[in-house]
Amino acid sequence: MNFILARRARALTSSAIREILKVTERPEVISFAGGLPSPQSFPVDEIARASVRVFGRQAATALQYGPTEGYAPLREWVAARHGVDAAQVMITTGSQQALDLLGKVLIDAGSPVLVETPTYLGALQAFALYEPVFCAVDCDADGPLPQALSAGLAAGARFIYVQPNFQNPTGRRMPLARRQELVARAAALGLPVVEDDPYGELAYDGEHLPSLRSLAPNGVVYLGSFSKVLAPGLRLGYLIAPPALFGKLVQAKQASDLHTPSVAQLLAWETVRDGLLDTHLDSVRALYAGQCAAMLGALERHMPAGVSWNRPQGGMFIWLTLPAGLDAGALLDAAVARNVAYVPGAAFYAGEGPVNTLRLAFVTVPQALIEEGVARLGALFAAALAGD
Ligand SMILES: Cc1ncc(COP(=O)(O)O)c(CN[C@@H](CCCC(=O)O)C(=O)O)c1O
Which of 21, 170, 227 has most ligand 1 atoms within 8 Å of CB, for mutation? Predict the structure, then answer.
């Protein structure tokens, strides 16, 4: 049978993260590739007890079709957490689906879409299906440069996609002043903002900075996720959108999957309704702070001269820059042959990006193995620098 692919399907590419995860399934591989939360962070007992309550008291609701916008008590819980009206909250099948719905509703072929440099490759993949023209916005250690948002760059742009907290892949965090400047500049240009915030609850010191949405409620669509605060296997995210856009996103979701699985929504609601996250997240933050410290110490001990990296105050990622001339993509096969893995940085750029960068996820590998994994990487980079 000869299938004729749609033009947009021909634009599809694989997720570098998903492809690398396939080859790193061997138990001897120490993988710093996937941004997979630590299994130690899953509140298994609480979720198990919640499931007894769900199937004991609400089986019919859990196993039945539900409203596209989501399970009302869970929407109310999200709304209360963000200080918004539940009518603006939609539960999605992971925040990855929220990215897809925004692409469906806001992007035409050729639409300019502004993105950070670098940015989350899963967002590039989700948006690419709708054939935008990506416009990379100049950034510094604090995030996108507001002054880079020229009227010309913003002309006709459908939105700018940003992550203010512990950005994937760089781990950087946007200070308050930068947040205020960015939303003010975007508002002045009439440029909608998509704020993707799966790591906002993972500041090691527990500090919260105001979301971009709270600074500009009518100009920002906020994306949140239960993946990093409960468990990614539940496939639960949410979006908070201004009324002018919300209805269209609901229609797009109706067409996509009717609604997010009822079982997962009721499980999550029963798990968080009595305030679990207020204590659970303290232990997750402490675990991840320890993982980060172990990784930073190992990098200091094993990386050859000329390799540099950031020191995140939260989240799950460290961004490494190799000496010019080294290509992290070309070195990946040799790394996997040494039973260690990472995600080459070029995949996180909308256009051509520096090939001497790579992302290390430090929360999944047990601390005892971080030293060995980083030592393997250090030996590989040293050999590459020596021309071996
Ligand atoms: C900025 C950002 N936005 C959305 C997502 C998707 O999270 P959901 O689990 O769909 O809520 C993510 C998750 N990214 C992880 C998970 C990918 C895991 C995988 O593809 O197996 C990563 O970058 O490794 C993200 O970092």
Answer: 227
